[in-house]
Write a structure and sequence with these properties.
The protein is mainly alpha-helical. It contains two helices and no strands. Residues 1-23 are annotated as: Disordered.
Length: 38
Amino acid sequence: MIEELARTTSEPEATQRQEQDRNVNITLSHRCALERQA
């Protein structure tokens, strides 16, 4: 079971997921900033 988890979360995939999370956070903060200006 643990080996299976290690296989599914390979390094490139984990990095990609982190990138996506960062992009989502940036998008959300931009939207909040725009709403504050309006």
